[in-house]
Structure formats: C-alpha cells, structure tokens
Write a structure and sequence with these properties.
- InterPro entries: CheY-like_superfamily (IPR011006), Sig_transdc_resp-reg_C-effctor (IPR016032), Sig_transdc_resp-reg_receiver (IPR001789), Tscrpt_reg_LuxR_C (IPR000792), WH-like_DNA-bd_sf (IPR036388).
- GO terms for molecular function: DNA binding.
- This protein is an alpha/beta fold and 202 residues long.
- Helix content is 50%, strand content 7%.
- A 4-stranded parallel beta sheet has the order 1-2-3-4.
- It is globular, with a radius of gyration of 17 Å.
Length: 202
C-alpha cells in the first residue's frame, strides 16, 4: 500500500487524510475518518474476510486494492459492500479516478478486474452483486431518490427536483445501495419495481 499512499498524497484530485495500520484502528479514529474513501487490502489485515469489509462499509465507501483479482475475490468484496476493486499494478491516474468515482457513490472496477469478470460471465451483462433485500427500511426521501434514479434522472436532476445539492443526492444513493444490496442502475430499478415505486409515480 505504500505506493498508493504516495500517489494519493500528491494527487490534485484527492485530499489524503492518513493511513491506518489495520481495520481495528478505524474505531479509534472514527470521527476523523468518517466519510472518507478507504483504500484497503482486506487480505493483509488478518481479519476474517469478508467480515472485515462488511464492518467498514457500514460507515465508509471502500475501494479494494489487491493483488488478488480472481472473480471470486471480486465478487465477495462487492457482496460485502465494497464499491470498487482494482489491481495493485494500476497506474497513478487510474487509482485517483477510482477513488473519486467511489467517493461520489459510484462503482469502479479496474480494467483487469473487469476482464476477469467478463470472462466468467462469457460476455453476458454482469449480474447484480447480492440479492436486493425485500422490505428494506428506506425512508420516504430515500424512496423518492430511488424512484427518480430508476426513471433515469441524473443526480443533478434529482437534486434540482428535491431542492438538494448533488453531493447530498450522492450520499442518498450510496445509502440506498448499501440498504438494498444493489450496485448498479439495473439492480436499483429492479428494487424500485419490486417495491411498487414506479407504479405509484407518474
């Protein structure tokens, strides 16, 4: 991770907060680290995987950066709540792009990671990572945001309609994804349909 730390320290598109020796240190530095993107290699921490990721993704957007890029490793990470997965051999600009994408609630897969997954799926469209949970505890505002995402509105358009900043909408979408276990638009749309949200809105 030392190379990644050096890249992020000097990156103009990111603000580097610090590095931690392990996941257990997050509890000790929770106030300082809340809201930050965590770049982690869960295989190095000694905490049972995927328990390590499941715990930290409750509070943070997580980008996994690991030498292990097999489809099972990636699938388990995304099912545990990670929003991105890249190989340790990526270049500096790709790492910064990945951190920025995850930071706004997006999903980022490195090129080599995406290639591995597409080989597994035989070129078919990727499935959702994790089954959407039925009867989720979405708030009324989260349901409104989910409905608009499913109808194809951009985060900026949603913000305009609900009188919210784009950053706030990004946060809502991130929270919704965590609650329902859907990590792409197709998955979110299916959840909205299952909840009857699309039929209830004009």
């Amino acid at each position: 991770m030392l190379g990644a730390i050096g890249i992020l320290r000097s990156a103009s598109g990111c603000r580097f907060i610090g590095s931690l020796g392990g996941i257990d240190e997050l509890t000790e530095n929770q106030e300082e680290s809340d809201g930050c993107v965590l770049v982690v290699d869960p295989y190095l921490d000694g905490v049972p995987f995927p328990d390590a990721l499941s715990e930290v993704t409750k509070r943070h957007p997580v980008l996994v950066m690991s030498a292990r890029t097999g489809h099972q490793n990636v699938r388990r990470a995304l099912q545990s709540g990670a929003h991105g997965y890249v190989s340790k051999d990526i270049d500096s600009s790709t790492l910064v792009t990945a951190v920025q994408a995850v930071g706004i609630g997006g999903v980022y897969l490195g090129l080599s990671v995406a290639d591995v997954l597409m080989q597994e799926w035989g070129g078919a469209p990727p499935p959702d990572f994790g089954e959407p949970l039925k009867g989720t505890d979405l708030t009324p505002r989260e349901q409104d945001v989910l409905t608009m995402v499913a109808r194809g509105l951009t985060h900026k358009q949603i913000g305009t309609r609900l009188t919210l900043s784009k950053a706030t909408v990004d946060t809502y979408v991130h929270r919704i994804r965590q609650k329902v276990g859907a990590f792409n638009k197709a998955g979110l749309t299916r959840v909205a349909m299952d909840m009857g949200l699309l039929s209830n809105h004009s």
